[in-house]
Amino acid sequence: MNSPSLHPVGDVAVIQLDNAPVNALSHATRQRVASELARAEADPAIAAVLLIGSEEFFSGGADVKEFNTPAMLAEPHLATLVRAFERCPKPTIAVISGTALGGGFELALACHFRVGAPDARVGLPEVKIGLIPGSGGTQRLPRLVGLETAVNMIVSGEPMRCADLANTALFTRIIEGNLLEGAKAVAREVVANRMPPQLARDRPLAYPHHEAFLGFARPMVRAKAGAYPAPIACIDAIEAGITAATFDDGLRKEQEIFFGLLQGSQSRAMRHVFFAERAAAKIPDVPAKNPTRPIASVGVIGAGTMGGGIAMTFLNAGLPVILLEVAQEALDKGIATIRRNYESSVRKKKLSQADLDQRMALLRPTVSYDDLRGADIVIEAVFEDLAVKEAVLRKLDSVAKPGAILATNTSTLDVDRIAAYTRRPADVIGLHFFSPANVMRLLEVVRGKATAKDVLATAMQLAKKIRKLAVVSGVCDGFIGNRMLHRYSAQAGYLLEEGCLPAQVDGVVERFGFAMGPFRMGDLAGNDIGWAIRKRRAAEGHPSTDGRIADQLCEMGRFGQKTGAGWYDYRAGERTPYSNPEVDAMIVRHSAGLGIARRKIDDREIVERLVYALVNEGACILEEGIAQRASDIDLVYLNGYGFPVLRGGPMFYADTVGLMEVVNAMRRYARGAHPQPWTPAPLIAKLAAAGSSFAAFDSQKSADAIS
Ligand code: NAD
């Protein structure tokens, strides 16, 4: 059933929000709730109204899909419904179970009374999609829980447990045990005692020094928010609630701010990311209910940079880990690093000593493959060398139990080839973690030719458990992210050859919003990694001119921060980059050697060439079916490579610029010193010519998958 329903219970009407899965307040739901409320109002037998949801969700809030569509403003829109519950001549009581978020919580805030289960959670998460609460949340919540708590909740967007708000005016009662029965009892008391409505709007915002508090909060919020406008806008709206002449003036100000943000490019980008994250979990030919394999224990092979981080990720999720190394010394070193990382978290008070002890107790170090016999999944993170991987996979195949998942963390090697080293390629999958694996949220789940559907479904489920954002990729050199990065890095190198210096490129890219420019990123990750990959490719018969300057840098021994010198110099213990005249002179000499007359390159060209190089490769990846959708590519770049969230990812950004504009720019750059990468990918050329977009391509594809 997809409708709220009115159950008169004695003289108490129960209106149930019933729009699975999260009780979003879609137009249809609002219409039904409003008419149920009107019926209850009109029915003389009804003395009070309870508004309830499901056990898991009172309501997840407004239907974000309706934003910027006519359905959002179709009557009764949310503000109308909120007003109806507030003005109802009969007592309205919100009964909060599960989770009440955003518009759903705002509806509850307008009711005359609220009751909640102790573990239910309430919150206003709009800030996470670049908005502020738009249906009175910034006006009513401070009046019910106090200014400080409200500012914290609204600016962070984080929900709170009802029990933790029990001592505020938010709740008439926190109900242990049967929530509905308890709520009905409250309703009867309200009716019997003729209790007047306890409206948030009637409560004064009793905070003696609001100017001082907001004056203190504002710079802190601004510093943390950086380029994000919504957190400060939350403070503005809350302040309007205090300073406006009337409550309704405050509401109007909140609406004005809300709609301003709603139209803005930043909230659009954040909403794109919101939907992208939900879409990424869907795999067209693997239904959500596909069987999965149980995972109760994990094996990790290799206790280096990645293996250690991967082990920590599973330990953090409470899963036991057997960590295998080739020799005792390397094993001891790996375990010591894990312990040191946890100890540092304890020192920073991010982890308790008990948690540290518990996690280390779940970790079993070994140098014997026999210990991996019982593992449900084993992830190898040994050297990026096919011969080493082959030896490891063959050995693993001989010891792992039937049905165990065998995963590789390779960054660039062929997962199908790795799978073929075993007698069970259907059980093999790529799990490409990013460094540091215990911190970075992205996980590329690499689906091999033979990977079984239940193995893929298990990997997706496991990703959730270890709090990673999983994006499915097909097999190709570099998968989604590193394959695109390759084009981006090549373009950065060409910019140096044509006239830029590292600091100029990094500065422009960072002003665009990237966490780090390409050269600072190279210094952080280690320039020798790309050097090794280029050497391998050359040995495999694929030489390239892309990394010529980077090769020279490595030949100078400048591998990056780890050697104290890369594209920049680094002082001991510092991460601040300082330009190095020898590097800059090497770059200028290199251009002369190629016969390129260096020229001044403006900011726009730098951004376009770097970002459109990503977009063009992304379009190839999409067309080849390596990525399932353009929005998946955006997620990879946002979560693995520091692309600015406020720009929504490279493919979304290209859509906002307009694909024809992007293609025209590519054609312009094709007339420059490095024309070869600028042939528009057939998909982008086709979409541009049709006046279409990557978003439309995604929608069409998902419609095709459903039909
Ligand atoms: P690393 O050199 O830090 O660690 C590799 C570890 O594997 C070493 O401790 C080594 O002793 C161990 N090892 C080597 N051969 C072994 C064997 N036969 N049996 C058991 N252990 C063995 O390397 P890393 O950076 O952790 O990379 C590991 C893998 O992860 C590579 O495939 C790499 O491409 C991939 N990867 C690396 C990154 C990164 O940023 N470093 C990111 C994603 C994926």
Question: Can you give a write-up of this model?
Answer:
The protein has 707 residues and is α/β, with parallel strands linked by helices. The protein contains 29 helices and 22 strands. The protein has three domains: 258 residues, 2-enoyl-CoA Hydratase, Chain A, domain 1, CATH 3.90.226; 176 residues, Rossmann fold; 226 residues, N-(1-d-carboxylethyl)-l-norvaline Dehydrogenase, domain 2, CATH 1.10.1040. The strands form five sheets. It has an eight-stranded mixed sheet, with helices on both faces. The chain has a six-stranded mixed sheet with strand order 1-2-4-7-9-12, with helices on both faces. It has a four-stranded mixed sheet with strand order 5-8-10-11. It is globular. The two termini are 22 Å apart. The structure holds nicotinamide-adenine-dinucleotide.
Summarize the structure.
It is built from 29 helices and 22 strands. With about 700 residues, it is of the alpha/beta class.
